[in-house]
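ok so heres the complex, two chains, lmk if somethin looks off
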Amino acid sequence: MVIAVLAAGAIGALARYGISLAFIRATNFPRAVLVVNVAGSLLGGAVLALVDRGIVDTGLHLILVTGIAGGLTTFSTWSVETLQFALSGRWRTAVANVVINLLLGLSAATAAYFVVYWFFLLHQYRP
Amino acid sequence: MAGWREVAAVAAGGMIGTGLRLTLDMVIPHGDTDFPLSTLLINVVGSFALGAMVATLWRRANTPNWLKVGLGSGTVGSFTTFSALIVSLLTEAQHGEWMLAVLYLLLSLVLGFGAALLGLSLGRRPRSLEIDMVDE
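and the predicted structre for the whole thing:
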């Protein structure tokens, strides 16, 4: 189980690294971190709904949330990049980076939670 | 440039970072309505570590790229997490623990970004001290 969570973390990290390379030319706004953080939050919200519906057990929850979503998303690059923008006088970008990550991350997780929760509730799915 | 060294370093770092985070989550477990101390510690320590590395190791011309991405993108990037913060805020709101959610978010932002600033300032301190001495 631990090996599977670690492997999932490596997959998340590789996906984040690949996305950071794909966005390397977009320097006005750190889009790569935004993309991975919103995608990981979406996955986290969806899995939380599956846990609440009794569809996903603890093991799969660890692999998907602690492994994939945890490895994919990052707090450190978000905080350090924001500070670098602020320190170089680009306050608007720094503030926007904080607000947009939080707003889109929370929205994605909440929306994914309700969509998945109601989908399985309406279909009366029970494992 | 993403050679095989970079890819291997990110994958290995991803496993190490995730393993450290998993360990801290197990050592300091928290329920849905408890304060997520492990995630806060992880994000604060990771922000400081990345800031410090960017300010010191990254500036050295001879630091190989695979080491930068292995430590930065791989290890510290996977150690810290944004999704756990968001999911905890969601579960706290679900349980009506709004004060806990606000406190957790504020502490994560203030301490996490403060730690990043502290880490980034490590590389600047000696230089500013030198300038002070010259001015005297």
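quick notes: The mean pLDDT of chain A is 93. thats all i got rn
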